[in-house]
Design a protein that fits this description.
The chain has 7 helices and 4 strands; from the N terminus they run ααααβββαβαα. It is of the alpha+beta class. Keywords: Membrane, Transmembrane, Transmembrane helix.
Length: 233
C-alpha cells in the first residue's frame, strides 16, 4: 500500500500538470477560454443552487450543481482545447498523420506511404471501413499520388474497399478538424479478423519492398531506370 500511494500521487500530479499545460497552450490561441469556463461553471451551479433554495433542498441541489458545473466545464474545455490544437496544426506538414494516430482504437495508421518532391504526402489508415488514403498538400498534385496508391491497393487487396480523402478547406476537401469524424462515418464493412488480415498483407508488402536486394556499387553505364522511376517514400 505504501508503494502504491506515491505512485498514485505521482500520476495525479502528472495529470494536473498536463491539464495546466493544455490550458496554457489553449489560452494562447483562445484568450477567452478562462472567462468562458468560469461563466459555464457559475451559471450551472448558480441555477441549481437557486432551484434548491426554492424547493427547500439547497444542499442537495448545490452538490449536484457543483458536480454538473465541473462536468460541463470539462466538456467545454476539452472541445475548445481540441479546436485550438487543430488551429495550430492546420497547414503544418504531417498534421493529418497526427490526427490519424489519435483517431480511436481499431485503426492502424501508416504515415507517408507516398510522397513527392514537393512534400505532398499520402497517409494510410486501415480499419473496419477498409483502407482510407488521406492526402495533404497541393490538391492538384496529390490527386496523382492518390490515384497511384489507390491503384496499388486495389491490386494488392482487391476485396477491401479503398476510400480517399484530401485534407484542406477547399471544395471537395475535408478540414483537418473534421478528419476524424469523416473516417468514423465510413460504413463498417470488415470484421476484426479481416482488418488484421489486411494489415498483415500490407505489412508483408512493406517488408518485401524494404528487404528487396539492391545492386551494390555504381549503376552500370547504359542501364536505365524503369519508366516512371521509383516513388519517394
Amino acid at each position: 500500500m505504501a508503494r502504491k500511494e506515491p505512485a498514485a500521487e505521482a500520476a495525479n500530479a502528472g495529470r494536473l500538470k498536463q491539464i495546466a499545460l493544455t490550458y496554457k497552450m489553449t489560452s494562447k490561441a483562445d484568450p477567452k477560454i478562462g472567462p468562458l469556463l468560469a461563466s459555464v461553471f457559475i451559471i450551472i451551479f448558480g441555477v441549481l443552487l437557486g432551484i434548491g433554495f426554492l424547493i427547500g433542498h439547497p444542499v442537495y441541489l448545490g452538490i449536484l450543481g457543483l458536480l454538473l458545473g465541473f462536468l460541463a466545464t470539462a466538456i467545454v474545455f476539452g472541445r475548445r482545447a481540441e479546436r485550438a490544437a487543430f488551429g495550430q496544426m492546420e497547414g503544418q506538414p504531417g498534421a493529418a498523420a497526427a490526427v490519424l494516430d489519435n483517431i480511436s482504437r481499431g485503426w492502424t495508421t501508416t504515415p507517408a506511404v507516398a510522397m513527392n518532391r514537393s512534400q505532398d504526402v499520402v497517409h494510410r489508415a486501415v480499419g473496419k471501413a477498409g483502407i482510407v488514403l488521406v492526402a495533404e498538400g497541393n490538391p492538384n498534385r496529390v490527386k496523382s499520388l492518390l490515384a497511384a496508391e489507390k491503384k496499388k491497393m486495389n491490386r494488392i487487396v482487391a476485396d477491401v474497399p479503398v476510400h480517399d480523402v484530401i485534407v484542406g478547406n477547399g471544395e471537395g476537401q475535408v478540414p483537418l478538424k473534421k478528419l476524424r469524424t469523416t473516417l468514423l462515418k465510413f460504413p463498417r464493412v470488415l470484421t476484426g479478423p479481416q482488418v488484421t488480415a489486411t494489415n498483415d498483407r500490407l505489412r508483408a508488402l512493406g517488408d518485401l519492398m524494404s528487404n528487396m536486394p539492391l545492386p551494390k556499387g555504381p549503376m552500370p553505364k547504359g542501364m536505365r531506370m524503369p519508366r516512371g522511376g521509383p516513388k519517394a517514400r
